[in-house]
Amino acid sequence: MIPISKPFIGEEEINAVVSVLKSGTIAQGPKVAEAEAKFARLCGTRFAVATNSGTSALHSAIFAAGIKPGDEVITTPFTFIATANTILMQGAKPIFADIKEESFNINPEEVKKKITRKTKAILAVDLYGNPCDYDSLNKIAKENNLVLVDDAAQSVNAEYKGKKAGNFADISSFSFYATKNITAGEGGMLTTSNEGFAEKARLMRQHGRSKMTNYEYSGLGYNYRMTDIAAAILLEQLKKADFITSKRIEIAAKLTKGLKGVKGIITPSAGDGAKHVFHQYTIRINNEFGIGRENIIEKLGSRGINTGVYYPKPLHLIEHFAAMGYKQGDFPAAEKAANEVLSLPVHPSLSDEDIRLIVDSIRDLE
Ligand SMILES: Cc1ncc(COP(=O)(O)O)c(C=O)c1O
Q: Which protein residues are within 6 Å of ligand 1, measured from CB?
């Protein structure tokens, strides 16, 4: 079976974990500090704060942005549920704005329409590893005095007009979950060049406690700490990040070439000035293709190709968001994407033979 994702792990990660286990410091320690310094360097930001998941990094970002009950945060309905849930975690309201069909990312024109007196932040997502239109989003944020947060869970090493992901917005968050381009099993990172935001994220990470050595608390916090075991894996993955990124881009280009001209299939592309890192290689399948999506998934599965639908339901139609008054028809571009998307394997372990099998199997269904 060709899996939809596969962690790119070698002896280096195994040895690094063993060495941390033998060191006696296995919770947050020197490896976490080293991973933060290296990650900030990768992103070109002043600060990086490691956490135990992408969700905790994003929650910390929303907290650091000062989001409180009664505030509104504008975000995309076409993303993983954690994006909008972190807004709820701060007692604020997610205000969805529709996506652009071509990029699957939040549409700045729709964002503008949703701004009210209560809006405090915009939470953009670089879906599938494709950066958003940050020229427009930064302009809107600046003009309206809003914090721009980037959920960069899927876009490590992506670029937009000379900047790296992590440095597109005021605060960004990453995930190192097992399927992500670089992984620590579980883990997250917040990046920013704003010292106040970084300090708030550090407090959030350990119960509002400024140091591990004191018992002074500045308010509500959580245990969002990364372990040195995870950080040791992350440090090895960071050494491989450029290789993994170029491999994904190369495989994506081969898939796009192979699928060129297939009627009813739209292949993905990067936006203006953006470097897409293909966390997912996601095609759209429309009515012009001979058979429907479910049928394609089944047929590819029977040839040993695992695929994925990210995401089958836009967030506004999920029960706890729909209960806020959202309904079918509110975000037509997101709803259309949810019906049409299909992600194909694009991880760096794919061989040319695997790529050929994926392309030929789809072409056989035409
Ligand atoms: C867009 C997006 N946001 C947030 C998350 C949450 O990250 P994690 O699973 O590491 O908590 C993920 C990943 O799963 C994601 O894809």
A: 53-55, 58, 79-80, 82-83, 125, 151, 153-154, 175, 177, 188
**CA 177 to ligand 1: nearest atom:** 10
What Å distances lie between residue 152 and 105, 126, 160, 170, CA to CA?
12, 6, 12, 12
Question: Which tens digits make up the pLDDT trace of 345-365?
Answer: 999 999 999 999 999 999 999
pLDDT in tens, 149-170: 999 999 999 999 999 999 999 9
Find the 89 Cα to ligand 1 centroid distance in Å: 15
Residue 267: per-residue pLDDT:
98
Residue 63, CA atoms < 13 Å, CB-side half-sphere:
23
Q: Which of 334, 287, 294, 365 minimizes the C-alpha distance to 99?
A: 334
For residue 27, the CA-to-ligand 1 centroid distance in Å is 22
Mean pLDDT (whole number) for 280-300: 96
Residues facing 70 on adjacent strands: none
Answering whether pTM is above 0.85, one says yes
Do the beta carbons of residue 359 and residue 255 sit within 8 Å?
Answer: yes
Domains for the chain: give ranges and CATH numbers: 11-237 (3.40.640.10), 242-363 (3.90.1150.10)
Pocket test for ligand 1, best of 51, 55, 183 (most atoms within 8 A of CB): 55
